[in-house]
Specification:
Layout: H1 10-37, H2 47-52, H3 55-62, E1 71-72, E2 80-81, E3 97-99, E4 108-115, E5 120-129, E6 134-135, E7 152-153, E8 172-181, H4 195-204, E9 206-216
Parallel strand pairs: 2-9
Antiparallel strand pairs: 1-3, 3-6, 4-5, 4-8, 5-7, 8-9
Length: about 220
């Protein structure tokens, strides 16, 4: 027997409509719960799939921060006055230094001390091995110091090997320049090299530089 809704009393037809609406609400609710429990995302994928497909997220987890290529010293802050011990007024000892790894391809380092007020070279240490990223205070004043092993020093402006610090009667500005070099040892440079020639050779093999400046005048 075929049921014709038009043949039902008005009250019966209303009950049929209400029942049908209730069934649709239940069905929709069940579908939503199933999608939510499966970890769905607005684009139809799962949360796990979304994370796995994000290359930036994976790269961020794997990447480690690199130490910066910068020159620092516990004895001299950038732009500060030289400690007396690092000048001719005191014991004229070389200050300690530390730095981050140089650019790709770095095979050695060099540090040049220059009086920028009068553009006058003071001292140079070079052939610092690529594995070394610090210098101790008071490096030996010889051509080949024991620490760091492998490094070499030019004769300073006074004619002796190693560091020679500030000694001006009026205030001058000084600059330590750290060079990252593309050679392990400077070619053609020996213990008889002049300061200017050593600096020229260093600049010819430079991959990058970092600077630390200070100022000084004799009291």
């Amino acid at each position: 027997m075929k049921l014709d809704a038009s043949s039902l009393p008005l009250l019966g037809r209303g009950s049929l409509v209400v029942g049908f609406a209730a069934a649709m609400i239940v069905a929709c609710s069940s579908s939503s719960e199933a999608t939510s429990s499966s970890g769905g995302t607005p684009d139809g994928g799962t949360e796990q799939d979304s994370a796995a497909g994000d290359p930036d997220s994976a790269a961020a987890e794997d990447a480690a921060p690199a130490a910066p290529f910068a020159l620092t010293s516990t004895a001299l802050a950038e732009g500060a006055t030289f400690p007396v011990d690092n000048t001719c007024t005191g014991t004229n000892l070389s200050p300690p230094f530390a730095w981050g790894p140089g650019p790709e391809g770095t095979k050695s380092y060099a540090i040049v001390l220059n009086d920028t007020t009068i553009d006058f070279l003071h001292a140079i240490i070079y052939d610092i091995p690529e594995t070394v990223t610090a210098l101790p205070a008071n490096v030996q004043k010889v051509y080949a110091p024991t620490a760091p092993a492998g490094a070499h020093q030019t004769k300073n402006y006074k004619g002796t090997f190693g560091y020679a610090g500030p000694c001006p009667s009026t205030e001058h500005v000084y600059e330590f320049v750290l060079y990252a070099l593309d050679v392990a040892t400077l070619p053609g440079v020996s213990q008889t090299v002049a300061l200017a020639d050593a600096e020229t050779a260093i600049k010819a093999h430079s991959l990058g530089t970092k600077k630390l400046t200070g100022k000084y005048k004799k009291p």
